[in-house]
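Thread: Phage capsid protein, structure

OP (GT): Posting the sequence first so everyone is looking at the same thing. Length is 383 residues per the record. Can we get the structure tokens written out before standup tomorrow? I want them in the notebook alongside the other entries.
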Amino acid sequence: MTTPILETKMASDDFAATFAAFREANDERLTEIEKKAAADPLLDAKVDRLNKRLETLSLSLSQPALSQPVDEAKSAWDRFIRTGDETALIEAKSLSSSDGSGGFITPIETENRIDSVLEAASPFRRIATVRKIGAGRFRKPVGTGDATSGWAGESDARPQTTAPSLTLMDFPVGELYAMPAATQALLDDSVADVDAWLAEEVRDVFAAQETAAFVNGNGQNKPKGLLSYQDGADALAVVKTGVNGSFAVGSQIDALMSLIYTPKSKFRPGASFMMNRRTLSEIRKLKDADGNYIWTPPSTIGEPSQLLGYAVTEAEDMPDIIDNGPAVAFGDFRRGYLIVDRQGIQVLRDPYSAKPYVLFYTTKRVGGGVQDKNAFALLEFAE
């Protein structure tokens, strides 16, 4: 049986070999296009096949390994999950029913377990700012103008400075829910870690739903997505490729460079690209004037790939390349986008609705939105 270290090395070697084959095939394809104005369809198919293989390997290598926490001793929470016994939970001061439905707030250890696996699965959470809150909304004061300042000598008088004008940005939260099912046999197994099971079951559902909202959400009972800021005073900066649904021939890299230099310089050191795998598949084929690929694979396990020196985050909910559509975002997501998590994940145990299975109706309250529009720019495939 292979060890995790050996499996990781094998995957890394496979990635390096696949990338070398992709470069060789794509170089041959580009040479044929230059000579014959078209490439052999079989060669095109080979490049696409290797490109898809790179996507799969890149995704698997970029996922950070999760450490397995030590099994906890039986507790009031553990008894509730396994048997439905609520007595100890009701008596405990640290845990209480969140409403009259019979649901209970998870212990902080369980909540942290869910948040940890969710961060590993969510591309947005890995690069944005995440803040815990205790209320139903978060309000952040932001300045609409700079406070005055100046220079003065050691003994000079200091003129009074004016305070900046402030406004409040609202980040309301919406309810995210999932309903994993377990067999009673699993719950009766004293060796099984039910907290780990619950975290893994809700991880993919939560990650898929919230990522869709972080990209396209309208802000109604859900986060306001990055691409929802395209109109009005809060609209993000836009760079156009010059051609509907494509790059302008010979100006692909120029468009990407314009995108990079649209946000102010203070945002570039922490900036990254965001696009879906189909868009990245097309951009991965591009080369600069010296014949070098502008996309480079991860240098170490767990790191993202890079495009023109900036990290690339893949988010499947980003749009495909279409006419008049933004398919690529660039910016400092840590400073520009805020995710708010209301503390307290609620679980309602339901052994009746889907017998012989036990359902766990799990809810988490999440909000989000752009907190600094100047940190971003969008690449729109339009004239």
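GT: Both are above now. Quick notes for whoever picks this up: The chain has eleven helices and 17 strands. The CA atoms of residues 64 and 302 lie 5 Å apart.
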